[in-house]
Specification:
Blueprint (H helix, E strand, L loop, with lengths): L10 E5 L2 E9 L14 E7 L1 H11 L5 E6 L3 H17 L3 E5 L6 E9 L2 E9 L5 H6 L1 H8 L4 E7 L3 H10 L5 E6 L1 H4 L4 H5 L4 E5 H7 L3 H6 L4 E5 L5 E5 L2 E5 L14 H15 L10 H18 L13
Helix pairs in contact: 1-10, 10-11
């Protein structure tokens, strides 16, 4: 494949994987006392925050690289098989790192009640194990070297994941973090924050951090984004804050799973399309433009079923 500005080493995503099972049920058919529920539809697919980010970036014209940790289980085998075929189908480069614990998996229950659809996510956590991680440390460093934008998705609170960030998220790149709640509530969260240029979280996660916006900026974060579903959200860039509205497309069915990842990927796309090399050196209006673009894309995405499915730039 011929390289261009959108396929060179610009964006790399890692390390959150998940094997997703979707169960669709009709709430009218659920008995008051039950041990088993009949699903109207069932499907499996590659999922997790990283998969959503990759899909969103590809749909908007970028071909990021991908680094993923997979376990020695059925889900990990499924991932490895699919990921090995990814470069042929999409042009992105992948690096798969083995770990000893199970691959992350999620059961997503889509409950239909008339015209309304709600999604409930139940996660089975995996983990990076020290011995395997240390054996592959140089491989990971090599995979992350030379990228301008780095997105860490689904980061939890293990020491290995923190070491992974310390190894690969330096001052030579724009570092974006999508943290999980157990990392946010960890006492070492501030040390992770200090490595980042951009942090994207929802209102509940922000409150759980028990930190003020100024605390994030004092730790070196240039842009903090706090999303709040259909209420819009707020962002603070170098201490200057502003609210933004959510885009309401009046969908009869709403699928919120993955919307936050599409928001973050779209933010990155807008900044790249503006030829911004270092986010900390750009202006407020450039950042505002990126946030509004991301909000618009996320507003379209919630009307499309499937966390990795969303609007295309075509």
């Amino acid at each position: 494949m011929e390289e261009d500005a959108n396929t060179s080493k610009t964006i790399i995503v890692g390390p959150s994987v998940a094997f997703e099972s979707y169960w669709e049920i009709n709430s009218e058919n659920i008995p008051s006392h039950y041990s088993k529920i009949k699903a109207d539809n069932y499907q499996t697919e590659i999922g997790g925050s990283s998969a959503n980010l990759i899909a969103a970036l590809i749909n908007q014209g970028y071909h990021p690289d991908l680094v993923q940790f997979v376990g020695p289980d059925m889900q990990g085998d499924f991932y490895s098989h699919i990921l090995n075929d990814v470069p042929t189908r999409s042009g992105i480069r992948t690096t798969t790192i083995p770990c000893l614990k199970r691959t992350n998996a999620s059961n997503i229950i889509r409950e239909k009640n008339g015209d309304k659809v709600s999604e409930h996510v139940y996660e089975f956590k995996g983990a990076i194990v020290t011995s395997i991680f240390m054996e592959n440390r140089d491989v990971i460093k090599s995979a992350f070297k030379g990228f301008e934008w780095k997105i860490a998705s689904g980061i939890r609170d293990s020491n290995e994941e923190k070491l992974f960030l310390k190894d690969n998220f330096g001052s030579d790149s724009n570092n974006i973090l999508i943290p999980k709640i157990d990392l946010i509530q960890n006492e070492q969260f501030s040390s992770v924050v200090s490595m980042m240029d951009v942090i994207s979280m929802n209102e509940t996660e922000f409150k759980s951090s028990k930190m003020h916006i100024k605390d994030y900026h004092e730790l070196g974060v240039s842009l903090l984004i706090i999303t709040n579903s259909d209420k819009g959200g707020r962002f603070s860039f170098l201490g200057n804050s502003e609210q933004y509205e959510a885009y309401d497309n009046h969908y009869s069915e709403i699928y919120e799973t993955g919307a936050g990842d599409w928001f973050t990927a779209s933010l990155c796309v807008s900044l790249l399309n503006q030829n911004i090399k270092k986010i900390r050196e750009t202006g407020f209006e450039n950042v505002k433009q990126a946030v509004l673009y991301a909000s618009r894309i996320a507003g379209i995405k919630v009307g499309i079923q499937g966390a990795s499915n969303g609007p295309s730039h075509d």
